[in-house]
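$ run holo --ligand "manganese (II) ion" --emit tokens
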Amino acid sequence: MTTAAVQDISALADFGIEVPSWAYGNSGTRFKVFTTPGVPRTPFEKVADAAEVNRVTGAAPRVSLHIPWDKVDDFSSLASFAADHKVALGAVNSNVFQDDDYKLGSLTNADKRIRAKAVAHHLECIDVMRATGSKTLKLWLPDGTNYAGQDSIRARQDRLAESLQEIYAGLDADHTLLIEYKFFEPFFYHTDIPDWGTSLLHCLALGDQAKVVLDTGHHAPGTNIEFIVAQLIRQNKLGAFDFNSRNYADDDLIVGAADPFQLFRIMHEIVSVGAHLPTSGINFMLDQCHNIEPKIPGQIRSIMNVQEATAKALLVDASALEKAQIDGDILGAHAVLMDAYNTDVRGLLADLRESQGLDRDPVAAFARSGYMERVETDRVGGQQAGWGA
Ligand code: PSV
Ligand code: MN
Ligand code: MN
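-- output --
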């Protein structure tokens, strides 16, 4: 059993989770995008919605942007708007998957002109970062092929390395380039950055400012994600998470919904080395879409799920675990983890919120606020957040 001495989840007071702007817009599958009353029409309204999530949870201090979905005339005014709403603008996500030019690839394309265009887009994203004060550029590369022999796998890696170097050279000294991986989709034979190994190799070639972002939905079924987390942390190359849940592929469902135990195991690897503390520099982000459920409450639920998994990880009796591991006590060690996982932490989290001056129940607080009814009346006409988030 966990003891009272280790029931300290106060570290969660400083644990922030970044939310994605695209979670607040309408999204869907290739079959249908369902519209939602009150959906944001502009990037400003997306930021306002995200600020609501922070207001009731106290744990969502930043909003990731997606360019061009969140393009505005004056990014510094978007940053001031965010600050007025007590949030900051976070990672800037590039987009090289919606332009006809990129049919055969973007940063890997055999055509030098198209590669240059894709590099220029990332340099434009870096300019956005300068205007918003964001420190992180996030690159998910959709490039790949559908048929064996369609293009040279090797040549594409060489082109990618060269393109990445050009982007990396455009970073300021305090910027980080996050390189994401995904094992398949939109291409189905090979993907140019399919796994953490490929992402890591490119990051190592680039330098200290390049790190891997791990999207929990981007692995083959059965992959031991916590092993990847542990390994990347050992190399100081885990830059960020894109949290979400998957049952089948890149489902982008609410984090902790499909497999809360997996989320706990991931957070245990994080907490066991203190990587949940702000000093680790790891950016804990959500990358989700709410196709059928209400979006703001969906984000609130997501934040709470990550908090619950992290609280449970904080309850792991580290010294008892280490002793059992060293003693070769297999079931004893497993029991230490399971004791923490099976603890109901909802009361502890409600107490923590109360101590922060927040409502004990963020879902109820949001429902009571009348915000949703207000925006449903005020906002007429919605904006498609964009495909693929
Ligand atoms: C596409 O798979 C994707 O979901 C990636 O995970 C990116 O992080 C996200 O879209 C936003 O571009
Ligand atoms: Mn992602
Ligand atoms: Mn994805």
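-- notes --
The first helix runs from residue 43 to 57.
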